[in-house]
Amino acid sequence: ELAEQINEEIARLARFTNLRSATVYGGVGMGPQVSALRAGAEIIVACPGRLLDHVQRGTADLSHVQTLVLDEGDRMLDMGFLPDVRRIVAQTPRDRHTMLFSATFAPELDRFAREILRDPERIEIGLTAPAQTVKHALCPVAPDRKTEMLLALLDSTDAGSVLIFTRTKHRANRLAKQIGRTGRGAAVLHSNRSQNQRRKALDAFRTGEVELMVATDIASRGLDVDTISHVINYDVPGSADDYIHRVGRTGRAERSGDAITLVTPEDRNAVRDIERALGERIAVRRIEGFDADATVPAIATVGAPAMAPTGARRSAASGGGRRRTGSRKGSGRR
Fold first, then answer.
1. Average pLDDT of 193-206?
2. Going by C-beta distance under 8 Å and a sequence separation of 6 or more, which residues neighbour residue 213?
3. Closest CA to 98 of 115, 77, 111, 74
4. Torsion over CA of 120, 126, 129 and 131, rounded to 10 degrees?
5. Is this model's pTM higher than 0.85 or not?
6. Quick one: three-class SS letters along 38-103?
7. Cα dihedral 111→113→114→120 (10° resolution)
8. How does residue 11 score in pLDDT terms, banded at 50, 70 and 90?
9. CATH superfamily name and code, 134-302
10. Per-domain residue ranges for the chain?
């Protein structure tokens, strides 16, 4: 999904140039990619595994690469892609220009950077925090009433596109079916879906054909849909970093956005970690009919509704800058 998004931006930027680009990723047939590579492409946007397949088949030649960009370094580390990336780097000239981008730099990623970069310049932009246009809220709920609360939230708002995060693929499928029984359409996005299924789901969500998407953390990075007005964490994310990436899907391009997290008493430690990363307490907002369900200890209660009522959506933020979601750190060498 991210490769296609980047390629679309390249196509727009290169519209009046002779630059050609091609995408290379798994889950789809090799044929169209081979044709695009043989036709010639100045820019290749690729996922590591499929790019190595093309190199091994002789349909991609990296020996003349001038610039190598490695994005989402921390994610590639988490997913075990660094060995593949090392093999790709070995196919490129030593005098290339290399850039490595990452939201965070774990020690192993720092070691990897020292391997592939010579005398790099390190650039840090922004803070590890969501955009200032995002408004955060915690909604206490009993574990067995989370779906009921989610549906109540959806009923009480005139939201735009809503992205709902779950912890597991099974729960994403189940929740989308439960939402569907209420007459709403909901797309599903997770790694067990085929590439074509994921593309169709994203296209439907992006165009507004469906206004709800239920996803795992596969959608927390790179997904760029400007119309997302609300992010709802049906399940509390596994880490503060994951929270920041999830809620960074809203409040983009100076638009306002809401990040709502359904919390049970068992989520206390996770909430504390998230608040520590944000540097502030998150307001607790009670939903009518769920007041006695659960509590979030040691956090002050704010009596405002969790989502703007129908007809009272906030307009896009005007004026002022917007911090990029997360800390984008880059290392480059010329």
1. 87
2. 161, 162, 163, 164, 186, 187, 188, 189, 201, 205, 219
3. 115
4. -140
5. no
6. HHCCCEEEECHHHHHHHHHHCCCCCCCCCEEEECCHHHHHHCCCHHHHHHHHHCCCCCCEEEEEEC
7. -150
8. very high
9. P-loop containing nucleotide triphosphate hydrolases (3.40.50.300)
10. 2-126, 134-302
